[in-house]
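hey can u check if this looks right to u? its 123 residues, i copy pasted from the old doc so theres a chance i mangled smth
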Amino acid sequence: MPDGSEPATFLRVARQRFNHIQSMNTASNIAEIQRYLTPDLYQSMYQDIMANQDQDVAEFSNLNAMVIDSATENGQYIVSVRFTGTVSEDLNSLPQPFTEIWHFVKLTGSNQDWLVAGIQQEQ
């Protein structure tokens, strides 16, 4: 990993972040979600999060995570993680396969937490 952490440790944290952010993805939790996103990503997701007025939160099962890229650019460590598994959008829907790539960043040499800087849906 670009910051010297062990890949298994980083992936454990990445999975925890994924699950936590997904479980909090409602308007009433907007301040909590903001803690884990870069300001740019937060601004781009704000309207979608606010539109989710405490509806059923998606359920993710069989979650797998794999580092697919890592780099140091512009004073930041960047790690891209592919998440795969199944998701049920609400209590009455059948699980569907999903794949997303999340881009985590943190300033080089800092002890700050990793923040999510981007999320890509893969088909």
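The two ends are 27 Å apart (CA to CA).
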